[in-house]
Amino acid sequence: xxxxxxxxxxxxxxxxxxxxxxxxxxxxxxxxxxxxxxxxxxxxxxxxxxxxxxxxxxxxxxxxxxxxxxxxxxxxxxxxxxxxxxxxxxxxxxxxxxxxxxxxxxxxxxxxxxxxxxxxxxxxxxxxxxxxxxxxxxxxxxxxxxxxxxxxxxxxxxxxxxxxxxxxxxxxxxxxxxxxxxxxxxxxxxxxxxxxxxxxxxxxxxxxxxxxxxxxxxxxxxxxxxxxxxxxxxxxxxxxxxxxxxxxxxxxxxxxxxxxxxxxxxxxxxxxxxxxxxxxxxxxxxxxxxxxxxxxxxxxxxxxxxxxxxxxxxxxxxxxxxxxxxxxxxxxxxxxxxxxxxxxxxxxxxxxxxxxxxxxxxxxxxxxxxxxxxxxxxxxxxxxxxxxxxxxxxxxxxxxxxxxxxxxxxxxxxxxxxxxxxxxxxxx
Length: 428
Ligand code: ASP
Prior knowledge:
single chain, mainly alpha, Proton glutamate symport protein, globular
């Protein structure tokens, strides 16, 4: 019976369309909202429950599978190169879009007043710089959590990853039986986690329907009114990065058709879209990259948990676009130096942003503080943040999977070579 259902990504896509329709039709039904909230939370919890054991076991098995210590350094350097390149391109796309369409200017006037901002252009221009650097230092502090159990409890991914890297590295240096024991143990835990992920994903269509249905019912169209141009600019820039820039990079650097990869990653992208959380999507992206793209567990187990935590193309693009939009709305003409500062801060803070819903808002506040804009500007974009969060999270996750394929290729692997039909195979 189950085998007669369409492939999982189609089921999720159908659920998405039905959810949008249901969200609009039932937006004043308290019962629909309550049921959708409950089912959505249940699905999110199931994914969140997997995060800690999955990160730890995937990093461990990756480290224990890597042939030599030098491989760790090489993978790390390649990942860093990918993050730098793809994030910089994303930020540039966002910046060009906002500078071209000027969503913060309405009829030649700063949109601040129309949008209900309190501070006047003159007040804003006088503001002094905020203490943004302490927030950036915070990223480094989070890499070494004082208590690893506490980090796990709070799903502090960066700290967990650093500890797992260290543990895995020294476990792989053990000799003989001790090393084999570690290898077998972590490999076992990892495979169990993948099986549970596959089980959870069987319920993805229901989870997606509930999460998206509730969001659409709560947000509606009204919120978009004055922010429509900003919304369009960010959505357009995200789509440009997703459909043009990243596929081109996958083609050139990974030797794989970008659209084939996009199609194969659909379950991960749709999960990212509905959960707005790269961290919660990690189980699905790992599964897609291994089973559908054929990337080895050691490469994907290293690249994806790190990528889900520090590589955020969509987030960096959004941060930069939001900061420039808010500056325009206040009538502030940003100098080239300030625009450069925005770009650098968007790059840096996107690394520190957690893979959870609306996490970028904090980073945007940091950037606004650094260029001297009042934090009330963040309130301006709240109305459209939820939907844009869904879109940027999908771009974040797609960027990670592209990195995995490109890095795998650099390691001598041949993604998509083993099973030519893998892109359309259902993984559940
Ligand atoms: N929700 C995003 C993610 O999980 C982070 C953000 O930009 O708010 O990737």
